[in-house]
Amino acid sequence: xxxxxxxxKQQMIEALNLEEMTPADIxxxxxxxxxxxxLDSIDALEIILILEREYGIKLTNASEAKSHFKxxxxxxEFVQQNRTK
Amino acid sequence: xxxxxxxxxxxxxxxxxxxFGFFLHCFGLNFAYANLTYVVLYxxxxxPKQRAAVWDYYRRTWxxxxxxxIWLVYLHFYRFGQCLVDKMAMLHGLxxxxxxxxxxxxxxxxxxxDAGGVLMIGAHIGAWEMGSPFFGDYAxxxxxxxxxxxxxxxxxxxxxxEVQVPYHIIPVNDGELDSIFRxxxxxxxxxxxxxxxxxxxxxxxxxxxxxxxxxxxxxxxPFIVGAKMRVPVYFYFSMREGKQYRFYFYKAQSNERVGSxxxxxxxxxxxxxxxxxxxxxxxxxxxxxxxFWQ
Lengths: 85, 294
Known about the structure:
The structure holds two protein chains of two kinds. Chain A is mainly α. Chain A has one domain (2-82): ACP-like (Non-ribosomal Peptide Synthetase Peptidyl Carrier Protein, Chain A, Orthogonal Bundle). Chain A has four helices and no strands. Chain A has helices at residues 2-15, 41-55, 62-68, 72-82. Chain B is of the alpha/beta class. Chain B has one domain. Chain B is built from ten helices and nine strands. In chain B, the strands form two sheets. Chain B has a seven-stranded mixed beta sheet. A two-stranded antiparallel ribbon of chain B has the order 6-7. In chain B, helix 7 (148-159) links the parallel strand 3 (142-147) and strand 4.
């Protein structure tokens, strides 16, 4: 799980152009949106595309998706349970 | 100095919609148009921000003189009122009162709809809603992205049984994620998403370009979605010509790397070019009634 968390952080840094950040700067349990990392809905789209491209996960239930996007940890748990590659 | 941007509020209230709904049902479309003459006069006087925006549009974008601009401001509000009445008539099921004309590009557009997910980017010009009955069976797979404040008005009217909406709505609030999840979901289900490309509420997500010879900011969101989601992108406009609406469909083409920042900017550049063309054809149907230009 820790490896997956680091991998996700690195992928987010690259896709979201968080150039001044390193994986260590991202708190695994901090909220991704609003407070915490301060991402917005367009960044959420980038993360949706990371899940699809890197892990073969297509979000099919928009109402449930929000709960998986709370933090890097919830995202990693979701990826671990649903990845197809 | 930046433009103030749209404040995510719309004028008009439920009573006004109900009164005009009553006019439409009991006395018909022409009676509703006739009543606009004094309603519009009230709005010209009582809506200073909107009036100033339209004044600015004619004086500084079109460089018209003062006298002509005074007349055009009134006429502009009247055209806006006519389009609102038409939209209400459509929502009340009076589609047979209008005729529809398709411009070139419609067949290719239909082929794209048949093939799968499509992103349509419109604007606050004309009356895009007039297309929904015209889309026929396709309307059931059409999802309109609109600001929550506008959605609530339609929702209330639907609850009162006053209107029927043939399409789905994805409400959007600045800072909330639900809409982007929903957009992604419906495009994957090979449905169609329609959003407006000429208003932003998120200051951090806007792009500055020259539009109609003046500096303006456009939202990045619709063009990022267009660049990233790997679906055909169409610019769609429904323009009023009396009781006839003409539909325009322009397919965006880009040689930039799919999903890149350059791709996103290229989509916006094409969109702005087509929108300028529309404004030259229909100058009185620009309904972004706030200080759009800097």
